[in-house]
Amino acid sequence: MKNESQRTEVVIIGGGQAGLSISYYLSKYGISDQVILEKNKVAHSWREERWDSFCLVTPNFQCRLPDHPYDGEDPDGFMLKDEIVAYVDRFAQKVTAPIHEGVTVLSVRKLDDGFEVETTIGNWMCESVVSAVGSFHIPLRPPGFERIPSGIQQIFATDYRNPDQIPEGAVAIVGNGQSGCQIAEDLQLAGRQVHLYLGNAPRSPRQYRGKDAVAWLEEMGYYETCYDEHPDPEKARGGTNHYLTGRDGGREIDLRRFALDGMKLYGYLEEVTESGFRSRPDVKEKLDKADRSYLGIRQRIDEYIAANGIDAPEEPPYVPCWNPPSPEETELDFESANVSSVIWCLGFKPDFSFIELDIFDHRGMPHHKRGVTGESGLYFLGLPWLHTWGSSRFAGIAQDAEHIANMILKRRKRVEPWPEIQRMRAETIGAETA
């Protein structure tokens, strides 16, 4: 049964690390009249949309939720799925605002004096709304996916848990971002035949010259680079993350080595038919492009070490361990290859359709300046490169949340009191002068 409309100062949509972080700062700044509305449970995406062997790809020391840094014994390690959930749950215990779980936000509408947030348990009237649900909402599939025979299982990366859930036979994985590469490795280590279709994902070193590449980049100030300072800001927001892994203490992902171990690599998926996939003959092009990114990071680290006179061990030059045959294979026949499953790892598109305001671009992403929109009182948090590389990660969410909390506090001081407060004040003044 729905409750009657309620009033609060701030409605926060989303109970992940972004929503919890902004709530924490609002309370710290004295704005206690707030609610968090979570469609599922706190930390849902970590809890329910990651595979069993999932772990962070950035070191634990970059987990910096507000006043809640990583508190374990392995700052240079990579937390496993259950450890991540426990870390977020511990932070949630520090949040004093009411958290309503199992509540879906149906719409956000602008009113003359604020916003109306309609939900499955009633409506809230508020001065400010913070969307803290990220932007990874609807997983993507290519045109023609419906042609795949019904006997072949199709799942998204968010549905994958472990090799045992996949029917016997070969597996085609489409997309080689972080999820695609790590799921491909998980299946290959379990002895499954994997056919991996490549996109434009770059790759990164893991350990280089005596230290994790993430630690070098942080020391170099890379993660403090703001969106406006980035040499190609739009590419940054729309780009694919570098692939590497924290598995078994952390290591590089080299798809060429996967191929040496028996994984079949294909170029960009161009056509889906009832009998199989057809790809472009661009495996070498994709691998070379990923290697250029890898070598570029190494070069920047080398330059930093040289410029600062740092004593760091030398590394041998990179030499590719495998190259695709020429001509490249472009056809995959499901039946002859014994393909039983397809896992789609093509990323996501945003779905902010519940926000009934004209603030979105052609991709469905909000126009904003560091999370502040042109619609006074409406804010976004947890989006890729909202401000820096860490904006959608544990590394930078606190900085962004503090900024939005400050913006809400400043607006609170500027905005006239709500009509009912004005009325109450007028009645009080009238009574005092009568």
From TrEMBL:
InterPro entries: Auxin_biosynth/cation_transpt, CHP04046_FMN-dependent, FAD/NAD-bd_sf
Signal peptide, first to last residue: none
Gene3D superfamilies: FAD/NAD(P)-binding domain
SUPFAM superfamilies assigned to the protein according to its UniProt record, in alphabetical order: FAD/NAD(P)-binding domain (SSF51905)
Pfam families recorded: Pyr_redox_3
GO terms for MF: flavin adenine dinucleotide binding; monooxygenase activity
Domain of life: Bacteria
Keywords (A to Z) from UniProt: Oxidoreductase
Cited PANTHER family: FLAVIN-BINDING MONOOXYGENASE-LIKE PROTEIN (AFU_ORTHOLOGUE AFUA_4G09220) (PTHR43539), FLAVIN-CONTAINING MONOOXYGENASE (PTHR43539:SF78)
Identification of the protein by name: MSMEG_0569 family flavin-dependent oxidoreductase
Taxonomic source organism: Pelagicoccus enzymogenes
